[in-house]
Amino acid sequence: MTPVAPADGPPHTSTSFHEMWADLKPIGRDPDSGGYRRYAWTRADQDCRAWFKAQAESRGLTYELDRNGNQWAWQGDPLAGDAVVTGSHLDSVPLGGAFDGPLGVVSSFAALDELRHREVEFAKPLAITNFGDEEGARFGLACVGSRLAAGQLTAAKAHELRDADGVSLPRAMEAAGYDPSAIGPDPERLARIGAFVELHVEQGRALDVTGDPVGIASAIWPHGRWRFDFHGEANHAGTTRLDDRRDPMLTYAETVVAARREARLAGALATFAKVSVEPNGVNAIPSLVRGWLDSRAADQDTLDRVIAGIEQAARENAARSGIDLRITRESFTPVVEFEHALRDELAKLLREEHGDIPVLGTGAGHDAGILSASVPTAMLFVRNPTGISHSPAEYAAEDDCVAGVIALADVLEGLACT
Ligand SMILES: [Zn+2]
């Protein structure tokens, strides 16, 4: 990670942001790459959670851990209703960056500090959240905490989730000292929320192109994950004639190329980034290659077309090479249009201090997208000059982070203090 440099901006805001950032920085950090391994219900995750709880308590906020393991820090009465909620997540992808998730949580606490500095009068309760297991790095399903709360993942399905070592989600929660017995929909909690605003580092370069430190989200592209199982025949790499092989690696490779072509032609995205091989021996033709496809597009029709094209190419190539192919859709999230009224209100609240803020779509999934089916939801993005994300190179300048905090504080003040 590139170190965050001291910045201009209101000194108290810079200081509170900087101190929290420095506190979180070492947790789950790989010393060689500078990337993070903050997987759900691991030691690093628990350390992040302890950090969150300490931040809540040091500000005199009411701390709650909900039935699904999401953390909440409340100013005002948690049961009063019509609450303004902000926050994000603290977990990471394998060797992820420092900003995806933590920027939103740290900015939420810093924005509250800024509002207290302004001595505003709160008319509504305000809560800061850390949603558990947003990235899905351990159990293969993203946004588990918010999906459970919103009823988009049933407790039964959550009980079936397993990590690479075969540990189930409930056992992992138990091992971390949390009671998994009540996981499931949490409509009463969601009913307390009047508006949810998630600040997040941009995962693209749109703001760098427009020259703006902060943007507002319009929509999250529909996206999903598909597993391709290519079954062939294990055999000796040194004695099996090419014509006699049923090599699933070949069909897998052709499918990777097809995915790239279909995505390019459609203006969409398709990525094979995770693969497992059996028996995974250097001199053995594989018996099974299992590849995971992640694909996203601006609209459902385009995404359907891309997936159909990739499936067709994979099936044709498999048939030609004697490969048995099975395709399983493991997860899918339809397009999320953020509520227009709240989006417009954010733009209005920010116009005076920040001018006209760009409104942009994103291909990345977020807890805000999950919650948008249940509560009015909006997102703010902070400029990422390289656009790189899910990598140790992920970065936002501290000036922009502080601009994000101020924008978030302005939004929260407008929503919670009128
Ligand atoms: Zn994120």
TrEMBL record:
The record's family statement is: Belongs to the peptidase M20 family.
- Give the Gene3D superfamilies listed for this entry: 3.30.70.360, Zn peptidases (3.40.630.10)
Q: Which organism is it from?
A: Streptomyces chryseus
Q: What is the protein's given name?
A: Zn-dependent hydrolase
Task: Name the UniProt key words of this record, in alphabetical order.
Answer: Hydrolase
Q: Extract the signal peptide range.
A: none
Output the superkingdom of the source species.
Answer: Bacteria
What GO MF annotations does this protein's record show?
A: hydrolase activity
